[in-house]
Every structure is written in C-alpha cells, then in structure tokens.
Amino acid sequence: MTGAPIGDNGGMQIEGSVAVITGAGSGIGRALAREFAAAGATVVAGDVSSGGVRDTAEQVRSAGGKAVGVVADAATTEGITSLVDVARAEFGPVDVFVVNAGIIGAPGLGDDEADWDRILDVNLRAHVRAAKVVVPEWLERGHGHFVAVASAAGLLTQVGAAGYSVTKHAAVGFAEWLSITYGDKGIGVSCVCPMGVDTPLLTGITESSDPAARMSAAAVRNAGEVVGPERVAELTVEAVRAGTFLVLPHPAVLDMYRQKGADYDRWLSGMRRYQASLGG
C-alpha cells in the first residue's frame, strides 16, 4: 500500500506511505524521521553521517516503526538517486520527499567562492535536484508530496550570514514555484520556515569562535522561543496530511513577514537597528 492524496487539498495519507528524509542524522531530520514513522510511514533516512543516520534508523525501529538509514550526500543527484533507489527496493515508490539537509555556511560575505558553491549546493540545488528525480514519477502516478525545510530566514533574513539568507530565500521561492506548477497535478508542496530550533546547527554557531557567527546565533535566539525539533516535525507531518504549504513553528513569523511587506524601508531600518543592538 502506498500513500495517496486525500480530498481536493492535495493532502497525503501518511499511513502506508514511503518517506525519504535528508539530513536525518540529527536535529530536525531525526525528529522528522521519527514523526513520519509514528504516523505510519516507512522511512528512508539519509545523511552524510554514518553514525547519525544509523542511530536515527535504530530509534525508529526501536519505537516500532520501519526505517533504513543510508549514507548519502543529498546535495548531489547521485546521492538523491541512491536514496530513492533504496526506498524503492526496500519499501516501494517514494510518496514523500523531505529536503531537510542544510548548512549555515560562512559568516558575512564569505571569503572563498567554494563556500558559496557548497551552500548553494546543500541549501538550494539539493531541492532542485530532488525535484528532478521524484517529480516525473509522481506525475505518472498522480500523487506525491515535496517538503522543503527552509527557514524563517527565507521569509525575513538572517543577520550575519549572507549565504544562509540568500539560499533560504531561494528555497522558499523554489517551493512556491513547485506548488504553482504542479499543485493541480496531484503533487503537494510544504515549506517549513522555523526560527530558532534546538539543533546542532544552532549550537555550532552559538559556540563559534567567529563573532559574525555568534551574532547570527544571538539574532536567532533573541528573536523568539527556541523550540524543539519535535515540534517542527509534528507540524510538518500535519501539513503534509492537510496539504498545507507554509509551516510556521513560530507563528510570530507571519506577523513579521506582513510588517516587512507593508513597509519594506521601515523593516530594513528596524533590522539594521536590531543588528546594531547585537553588536554588528
């Protein structure tokens, strides 16, 4: 049995579906693997960390779910294809693909073009490459659901980290394009945009020796509550089931986004003041 759309909203039946989740070795990705499995999906958990992804799969199985861990670089077409091939061989065709893997990248403008190439690959091109792999099959089958784990930085911005801010904006834009282009063809799209989440990524920049990285962390932590990854995962699964596009674990982000659109210059001025208050 594979998942299928329910109703006219493009929502996915989670029970019996096959879900691939990238960046599943820790943080939000691990929580997503556990939550999808608890909702009845079989899970292929992918990550570049062999130990992390092995532990994630074991946690899912220990809780009574079905999962396999795969070491793969989801920023590459080869890595994405390997995840889809394992899913098909172990469980069946992929119904849900969650592009969660992400990096913070270099602070500021970055000193090396390679930094920009890497963050573009991980935070943006991975979404494009995943869609190229799964969307054609979903069009043939008449259903599928694509989940882009972006960030509130994709709706607002990220103080201190140009690469992160730019790529998260682009990830949101790509998710919008997918929904517009394929939403009437049985393909659902959800875009997850949290602020602070208690993950190794946030811990890493909080403890960084680089002042710009620490300022980025302070901007995130001071903007609102730092939630657990389990909350993000819970809301994401609900969105897939309901066919909802925008997932906001921090509801205040919507008000901030509206304020930004209502008066862009005022919002930019306010962000400059906020940056200065953080020592930037």
From TrEMBL:
Taxonomy, superkingdom: Bacteria
InterPro entries: NAD(P)-bd_dom_sf, Sc_DH/Rdtase_CS, SDR_fam
Pfam families on file: adh_short
Gene3D superfamilies hit by this protein: NAD(P)-binding Rossmann-like Domain
GO MF annotation: an example: oxidoreductase activity, acting on the CH-OH group of donors, NAD or NADP as acceptor
Keywords: Oxidoreductase
UniProt family annotation: Belongs to the short-chain dehydrogenases/reductases (SDR) family.
Stored PANTHER family: PKSB (PTHR24322), RETINOL DEHYDROGENASE 10 (PTHR24322:SF736)
Protein name, UniProt field: Dehydrogenase
The species this protein was found in: Mycolicibacterium arabiense
